[in-house]
Design a protein that fits this description.
By secondary structure, the chain is α+β, with helices and mostly antiparallel strands. It folds into 3 domains: about 1-225, no CATH class; about 230-310, Transcriptional regulatory protein pf0864 domain like (Alpha-Beta Plaits, 2-Layer Sandwich), CATH 3.30.70; about 315-354, no CATH class. Helix content is about 30%, strand content about 30%. It contains 10 helices and 19 strands. It has helices at about 1-10, 15-20, 60-65, 75-95, 110-125, 155-160, 175-185, 245-255, 290-300, 345-354, and strands at about 30-35, 40-50, 55, 100-105, 130, 135, 140-145, 145-150, 165, 190, 195-205, 215-225, 230-240, 260-270, 275-285, 305-310, 315-325, 325-335, 340-345. Strands 14-15-13-16 form a 4-stranded antiparallel sheet, with helices on one face. Helix 1 packs parallel to helix 5, helix 2 crosses helix 5 and helix 8 packs antiparallel against helix 9 (about 290-300). The protein is globular and about 70 Å long.
């Protein structure tokens, strides 16, 4: 569905087919066609290949990728990243290693074509940023090589760790290991449709039919309305009136060590004029659940407010400056007028001063 949506959004199908042909897979044919799904026009993809029974390891996949004389370095790296994400998940689920685990459905020829085609397609699309809405998994049970299991399948669930999910009440497998790997590997951030000027829309058709909704994957391509120097963060807040200052300090330290971008507290007055502290945590959206768990555990709070905020950020990078006293570590950032500003790290200065 992703591959079909990319072509429907304007990616050249001939270049994708040429890349697939360069893999040297005998008897493989990739075709794209127009179709109707739930009353909507979309693109469908069909992969024809000989019957096969082989299970492949990651090393076998790498050998297939290396046979190509057409894949660009980026297309090769994207393909390898997608397969590696699936291999890592399968190894974790089956108690094996990345090198030893063998692919089941994903090692099949049609899945290899699908994954490499997606890597070529996103490279040809040439976008700076990929944003995804929360991911629907569906529910129910499916039959895989290891027997019957609950949706999402174990490998899919492992790949989707840290990714926001959507509750779509359809009894079917809506996200496969391949789809999960595409999301986990390529997506920069998760949100609903951002403020943007839409240039192209691609619809990729799935094979199943659902009675109440079209089985389509939709891709929007366009320009963000906001500056590229912005991102989204999650703000967690809780009011505390029944713990000691030492616990607040310890919790702050633990949150920072766990990956919070910032943690701060402010004195507040709660109902009945009780003095209290509001503890606030800024973090990446994917880290919100994990940091909430720390707040619940360490403070025993009964509720945490969650806000999604957009922030403007300066482009910056680590930098060091040599002085007569020694090297000072810090950050180099750019102002709106593209002037470089160096901000030294206090700890580095303190070390030299000592």
């Amino acid at each position: 569905m992703t591959l079909a949506a990319l072509v429907d959004a304007g990616v050249d199908p001939d270049q994708i087919c040429a890349g697939i042909d360069s893999l040297g897979l005998p008897g493989v044919k990739l075709t794209f066609s127009s179709t109707m799904k739930g009353g909507f026009h979309a693109t469908a993809v069909k992969i024809e290949h000989p019957e096969q029974h082989a299970h492949r390891h990651l090393s076998d996949i790498i050998q297939i990728l290396k046979q190509s004389d057409r894949l660009t370095a980026r297309q090769y790296e994207l393909s390898l990243s997608l397969f590696s994400a699936i291999a890592a998940a399968e190894a974790k689920v089956h108690g094996s290693t990345i090198d030893k685990v063998h692919f089941h459905e994903v090692g099949a020829i049609d899945s290899i074509v699908d994954i490499v085609g997606v890597a070529i397609g996103f490279d040809l699309l040439g976008v700076d940023q990929i944003i995804s809405s929360p991911v629907p998994t569906g529910y129910g049970q499916i039959k895989i090589d290891h027997g019957i299991c609950t949706v999402p399948a174990p490998g899919t669930a492992e790949i989707l760790k840290g990714i926001p999910l959507a509750d779509i009440p359809i009894q079917a497998e809506l996200t496969t290991p391949t789809g999960a790997a595409i999301i986990a590997t390529l997506v920069d951030r998760f949100s609903m449709l951002p403020a943007m000027t839409i240039e192209e829309i691609g619809y990729g058709a799935g094979t199943k039919n659902f009675p109440e909704r079209a089985n389509l994957l939709r891709i929007f391509v366009g320009e963000l309305v906001t500056s590229s120097n912005t991102d989204y963060v999650t703000l967690l807040e809780t009011n505390l009136d029944d713990i000691t200052p030492e616990v607040i300090g310890y919790t702050k330290q633990k949150l920072m060590e766990a990956g919070a971008l910032d943690v701060y507290s402010a004195a507040i007055q709660m109902k009945k004029d009780r003095p209290a502290v509001m503890l606030s945590v800024i973090c990446q959206p994917a880290e919100a659940e994990r940091l909430e768990a720390i707040l619940f555990q360490e403070t025993e709070t009964l509720g945490i407010r969650r806000h999604v905020l957009q922030r403007s950020i300066r482009p910056r990078q680590p930098h060091a400056v040599k002085t007569v006293w020694g090297e000072v570590a810090g950050k180099l950032s750019l102002t709106a007028g593209h002037q470089s500003v160096f901000t030294p790290e206090y700890e580095s200065c303190a070390q030299l001063a000592a």
